[in-house]
Amino acid sequence: MAWNLTSSTFLAEPQPLLAQMRAAGPLVETRVPLIGRTWVTTTDAAARALLKDPRFVRDPKGATGRTMRQTLWFLPRFLSPMLDSLILKDGEDHRRLRSLVDRAFARTAIDDLVPDFVQMADSLLDSLDPARPVDLKAAYARRLPLLAICSLLGIPAADRERVTRWITPLSDPGPTTILRAMPGLWRVLRHFRADLETVRRTERAGLIRELVRAEDEGGRLSEEEVLSMVVLLFLAGHETTVHLITDSIASLLSDPQVREEALSDPARLPLAVEEFLRFHSPVMMTKMHYAREDLVFEGVPLRKGSRVSALLLAANHDPARVEAPEELHPHRRPNAHLAFGFGPHVCLGMQLARAETRVAIARFFRRFPEASLIEQPAYARRFGIRGYRRLLVRLRP
pTM of the full predicted structure? Predict the structure, then answer.
């Protein structure tokens, strides 16, 4: 059976199809646009097993003999840093890079950046016209994460507007997203390649400096590795948070009871954000994992080179793991969701995404407590991402 994971029906109400997939087994086959036949997990247990199984690798070369650069031969050469990033590394290569990057992150405390995030959110909200309808995704949820990542990286204020303008097309839905984003990506990579020299000369504060300085017994990050990490933070950290903020605010505007439970006490908001992560699962599935040998996984024989992905949405809605998974409970405990993945490749920027989302929600409802939806938002049909096309809101009655 062909499982359609991009239909508007599935994105709006995933439980019926997920139940059919689970009934077919913990591992089922589907088709991924531009990639082809792929296996996906349907349960929490299968997802966790995949994400810690050393028989699967992220770098296709270990399984197919072809690097990601060779696999995606049609992409322009300037995108090479994106095709050799941390998320595509395995084994010792991954451990070395992750260790260096974790050390850099440890020296850049997210909590210390929260006042900057608050100021950015307030500035964006100041620019909205309360008398007119607004697409909150475009005007707020998309712009805040970009500015927050600029703050984290230490990008000078004078450069932030153009950098965010170059990156923005990547969060637009549709099959031609990467093509429309190409000119901006070229400018971004050129800009940061030159910017690394500035950081080395001036010791400018921020995560870029910490990445440049990161060092252990194995050496330092190369220029290409630093560049790939900077771009990865924008690509992975930005889009995920755009949809998380949009989905969360939409839920709060749609259900007065959920809104009351989540916002009546500021101490409750962190728990609510975890439930929004589980319920919406903005990143529906992980990057591809490749079987590096003939093997049997979850009872299914797989050939060397077979592609497998953990369907995070299915794991987060698995009734064997989550009680009443189809219901959104802002105070759900425990809530061991897989929205940020699991195992050695767990999302590096998860604390950043949580902080940005908490700030975005709190500042929006503080400024516009009577905001309401103009229309029920529709999901964008983009494989692997569960997010709305737009979020039309009336800020005041």
Answer: 0.92
